[in-house]
Amino acid sequence: MSNVSTTRFSLVLALCLCTGAALAAAPLDEALKALPSVPLQDPAKVELGRRLFNEPRLSANNSLSCASCHHLETGGADNKPFSLGLDGKPVPLNTPTVFNASLNFKQFWDGRVDTLQAQIEHALIGPVEMASDWKAVEYNLSAHPDYQRAFAQVYADGVSAANVQDALASYERTLLTPNSRFDQYLLGNTEILTIKEKYGYQRFKEYGCIACHQGVNIGGNMLQKFGVMGDYFKARGNPVESDLGRYLLTGDEEDRHVFKVPSLRNVAVTAPYFHDASAKTLEDAVDVMFKYQLGRTPSQEDKELIIQFLRTLTGEWAGKPL
Amino acid sequence: MRRFSRRRASQMLLGLIALLLASTLVFLYLKSSRDQTATYTQSRDLIRQLQQLNAQWDSEVLKARIAITHNYDPLVTPLSDMTRIWSELQDRDTYHNPADLPGWQASQAAYVAAIQEKARLVDQFKSHNAVLRNSLAFLPTAEDDIQAQFNQIDDQGRLQLQGVATDTYDLLLSSLEFAQVTSDERAADILVGLGKLAINKESLPSEFQAPVDILSNHISLILREQPLVNSLLERIAAVPVAERLDDLTTHLNQDQQNADLVDHQYHRYLLIFSTLLVVLLLYLAVRLLRSFAEINRVNRALQSANETLEQRVERRTQQLKDAQSELLDSARQAGMAEIATNVLHNVGNVLNSVNISAELVSRKLRGSKALGLGKAMQLINAHQGDLGTFLTDDEKGKLLPGYLNQLVEAIAVEQQGMSDELAQLSKSIDHIKDIVSTQQSYAGAATLLEPINIGALMDDALRMNAGALSRHHVTVVKEYAQVPQILGDKHRLLLIMVNLISNAKYAMSNLSERPRQITLKVEAQGEDTLKISVKDDGEGIPPENMTRIFTHGFTTRKEGHGFGLHSCALAAVQMHGQLSAHSDGPGLGAVFTLTIPLTLAGSSS
User: Fold this and answer.
1) B126 touches chain A (CB under 8 A)
2) What is the secondary structure of B205-226 as a DSSP string?
3) What is the ipTM of this complex?
4) Chain B residues with CB inside 8 Å of A295's CB?
């Protein structure tokens, strides 16, 4: 009896919720998609990944952890143009944010790997980054009883390279920044954006920013040549090897200056911009984009509107806006 | 023995055959029981999913091509799904035909190469298509911007620039057409138009420069990108992902057919081996039944043998019993003979003195003075008439009265002597009567319980041996405690005592350096046991004989028959008593002790 009534009650409740939701907030069908929720994972695994993320033992001289360059309080990257590698020298590319990285179709600026696991390995072994190797990492972690216990709790085979990668990847999948105002707008709360921000979104679409920055991560799902409508690197001057982008990886002329289109989520808090950190402000970045990617000259007003829109893409981490 | 080993060998052979068949069956079962159909179905299902995703991918590419959507996520997700499904497919151990394995692997590699190529092309397509769509979408706006500039010019100037405006518009149209129908001709047209625009730009006012530049830039981009996008689309369409997947399916089908064939073969084998096993089992069952029958037969034989054996044992037991009773009888007879011998010996001794007495009497009778009386009477009879004279006158007559007086005295002495001798004789006869009556009172009496005075019985026993004892100069020491009359078997007790005393006497027959002494002891032990012991100072019993002395036929004497102690022990047991021997060693004498229940004569009637 009580079972039946409970079922009925929950049915009614579900109906109410559905109708309510339908009335209040039907998700918008846009080329930009709302941030998905964090996937269900083993909390112990995620916790282990969190510890590893902050673990300097992963680097060759126990000085750098993932968190050394990816500051979660400030946008998931550091505010330097180039983070300092293990040897204290700056790395050749601007550090991308770790936030929402799991939503990117490939990792790194040149999209050189497809999975978070591979990304972790590259960062860990990369000579300019943590410069370590798996043997040393396994040894360092196994020497620590806490880690031995924690690994044994989650993985049958204890400490191993694959398990370190898996734990870190699990943690990184939780590093999503939900609840940005634009996400709320996409989910149907159209009142949350100001009229100017809505105009900004409109301009964003009209000018064709959306051609590359779209999808669930507002970018991060394609490669694009930097300088479609003009030679950006010539204009910038001082060309360096890392400007070649994907070409370094494939050697294909087609890939010269081709980079992964970065996500625009939290773009307002992840300055400086571009792989070369050449744009210090959002305005600079938008200018470059207009000139070299869109080949258009926006009005000052439109540009400001777009920037206002871009600021609505800042989400929350640990319940606080970034 | 040989038969046994042959049986063992055949058993081992059977076991080996059974083991071999069973393991072959298990092997065949494992070989044929893999659910291959399911695996193939699942694998084919995965490939079908891959094909669906591939088709979905293609359709998303086309959608992006005609700019239905700006979202490029759908061009990413099919690939990641396919990668996931592919790894799932590879995790499966689907392929079975080892001969064709390289072909299968080659097909897989071909698929991987195709999908990588397609992914590369799709990525390129995304990049180029995005900018192309942007420019195409922007083209009318760009042209509008130029037209707006035209509109701002006065009518005079506009008339001058009418040609330029028319050219620009034509260029826009041909560019848009180019997007639809890409051909080299049109490309050439557009190139010409772009050249014209560049020339026209020179004659245009400065405010026109930027919009025209932008327009021409975008048109050049379209001119550049459109063929690229088209060729990319063709190349994407040409990537044989679907064909490779079909190849994989074909491969799987062939493999399944092969596997099915092998499976059928294994099934046949399984059937054959099962039949063999069943035959073997049947054979074993028959053997088992036969061995059961054999066991039953043997059991029955054993049972009957057992019964016979029991009967034989019974018979033998009976024989033994008979022998024992015979033995007992003979022992008893032997005992009785011994008693009789003793008795006769004693009787003989007494008869000797009877004989002497009788001789003496008869000799005295033969030399009797009574004969002188007859001569005197003859003299008297011859002188009947003149008796007086004769007595007074005659010489002889005068002597007669004196003679008669002497005769009377002599006859009186003679009578006295004979009377003494006859008294002795009758005493001896009494003795014999005693001995005989003693013997008679024991002989033949069965286990009759009667009141016994132990002391008197001991004395009787001694008396029966009295001759031998006195002949061997044996001193008897009696240590009789005060024992009440008991109820017992007089005959057996006497038998035991006579034997023990006789043995003691024999044991001391070789004793010369010291007096021979037998000590008889009677005492009550506790309230219910009577202990009678016969102790001698004789040759003793060596320890090795101690255990044997009561056994039948054991004797240390030349003329002994080995019945004595054995029958005594038997008699003791029959009286619910016990006969035991003790000796401190050879030459130290021995003590034989009889213990019997002390049943008071008054206690039972």
Assistant:
1) yes
2) -HHHHHHHHHHHHHHHHHHHHH
3) 0.88
4) 135, 214, 217-218, 221
Tell me if residue B537 falls in helix, strand or coil: coil
Q: Based on the structure, what is the number of domains in chain A?
A: 2
B76 in contact with A, Cβ within 8 Å: yes
| A190 and A292 belong to one structural domain | yes
Question: pLDDT at position B234, please?
Answer: 93
Residue B516, strand partner residues: B474
Q: Please state, in angstroms and rounded to a whole number, the distance separating the CA atoms of residues A190 and A180.
A: 13
pLDDT tens across B503-514, in order? 888 888 877 777
CATH of the domain at A310: 1.10.760.10
**Rounded Cα–Cα distance for residues B540 and B519 (Å):** 15
Question: How far is it, in rounded angstroms, from Cα B135 to Cα B137?
Answer: 5
A31/B70 touch (CB, cutoff 8 Å), yes or no: yes
Distance of CA B21 to the CA centre of its chain: 31
> Any chain A CB within 8 A of the CB of B69?
yes
Task: Calculate mean pLDDT across residues B333-355.
Answer: 71
CB pairs under 8 A between A and B: 69
Asked if residue B129 lies in contact with residue B137, where contact means CB atoms within 8 angstroms, the answer is no
User: Does the domain made of B446-597 have the CATH classification 3.30.1780.10?
Assistant: no
Contacts 24+ apart (CB under 8 A), B49-53: B49/B85, B50/B82, B50/B85, B50/B86, B50/B89, B50/B245, B51/B242, B51/B245, B51/B246, B53/B78, B53/B81, B53/B82, B53/B85
- Any idea which residues of A carry the catalytic annotation? 129
How remote is the C-alpha of A242 from its chain's centroid? 20
Q: Does A208 touch chain B (CB under 8 A)?
A: yes
Distance from CA of A109 to the nearest CA of B (A): 15
- Determine the residue type at A145: P
Interface contact B70-A33, CB threshold 8 A = no
Distance of residue B132 Cα from the nearest chain A Cα, in angstroms: 9
Backbone φ, ψ for residue A296 (5° rounding) = -130, 160
pTM beyond cutoff 0.90: no
Task: Look at residue B446 and tell me whether its pLDDT is greater than 60.
Answer: no
Tell me, letter by letter, the H, E, C secondary structure of B357-391: HHHHHHHHHHCCCHHHHHHHHHHHHHCCCCHHHHH
- CA B485 vs CA B460, B463, B534, B594, B604: distances in Å: 15, 20, 20, 17, 12
Q: Where a domain ends, among A173, A190, A216? A: A173
CATH number for the B34-243 domain, one of 1.20.58.920, 1.20.1730.10, 3.10.410.10, 3.40.50.1360?
1.20.58.920
Question: What tokens were used for B304?
Answer: 């009957």
Q: For the segment B10-62, what is each residue's pLDDT rounded down to a tens digit?
A: 888 888 887 887 888 788 777 765 556 777 888 889 999 999 999 999 999 98
